[in-house]
Amino acid sequence: MSLETTLQQLYDLPISSTIRENVNAFPLIESLHVLAITLVFGTILIVDLRLVGVAAHRRSADRLIRELLPYTWVAFALAVISGSLLFISNAPAYAANVEFQLKLVTIVLAGINMAIFHSTAHRRIADWDMDLPPPAAARVSGLLSLALWTVVILLGRWIGFTLDVLF
Amino acid sequence: MFIQSFGEWLYDTPLSTTFREITWVIPAVQSIHILAIAVVIGSALVLELRLAGLIATDEDPGNVVRRYLPWIWKALIVLLASGTLLIVAEPARTIGNTVFWVKMALVLGAYLLTLAFRRPMLASPVGNVATPAKPIAFVLLLVWVAVIFCGRFIAYT
């Protein structure tokens, strides 16, 4: 089974044609996607700025992360679900779109950056929990995360102008 | 109609034409607009959930307001500036659109509510939690969500 047939099968799903044909479905799902992204970026921004060295509403970096990360994850799940629905409505066109491909790569890079942070600087967080600014490793993680999520939003917006499909 | 003739005049200005001809201008300004709304949403989320007593209840509410309210004001300025550029680039899509005006009314409502009920908290002494903040917290979060939905629907109406 080739990628093309899989994409076409996704396109042919009843839910995909519903999203394409119902005038309000696509904008509604897109609005949810934007809401989810603003929640992901908005909460991550507070944590990333704390990692870079900008004070948040509490001093402890570890408590801040544990307080806000659940919101980030729920919003990210909403972004993935709404994004998947937008994707299947025009699977072949999205898959062929360079900005879409780069956006997925950038999200993976943001995930890798987060995994590296959690397995390195975050392991020793007890040593720098109250430090402002935190050690260089944490500051680099925060800056990279900010940069990568900004690129994700830019690429996401560019998809709307480059996608090879008009409704 | 005044708005229509104003929109037509704006559309024909050299600045408006330039914005449309340079293909990256509109998506770039829209991206800045989304980044700024993310700053509002992130700040408002923590601020309002704190005032609703749902998170960070060990932190002083006045300090949480002092931390996040200035970010909301700064992001609103960026939103106003980037939004104005988007109106200049595409007048008919914006000021000629009912959803746009609904969005503006909601933004004004959120601004006035924040100004009336949140700004005074900047001066509240540490430990003062006497303000009946909870209902307004949920109203404000809902209004910001509605603003996002209107923003996206402008593109389809």
Count of individual domains of chain A: 1
User: What letter string, H or E per element, gives the SSE order of chain A?
Assistant: HHHHHHHH
Structural class of chain B: mainly alpha
Q: What count of domains describes the coordinates of chain B?
A: 1
Q: Which stretches of chain A are low in confidence, meaning pLDDT under 50 for 5 or more residues running?
A: none
Secondary structural class of chain A = mainly alpha
Q: Roughly what fraction of the amino acids of chain A lie in strands?
A: under 5%
Helix content of chain A: over 70%
Question: What does this protein structure show overall?
Answer:
The complex is a heterodimer of chains A (167) and B (157). With 167 residues, chain A is mostly helical. Chain A has one domain (3-162). In chain A, 80% of the residues lie in helices and 0% in strands. Chain A starts with a helix and ends in a 5-residue tail after the last helix. The relative contact order of chain B is 0.15. Chain B is an all-alpha fold and 157 residues long. In chain B, α3 packs antiparallel against α4 (61-89) and α3 (25-51) runs antiparallel to α7. Chain B has one domain.
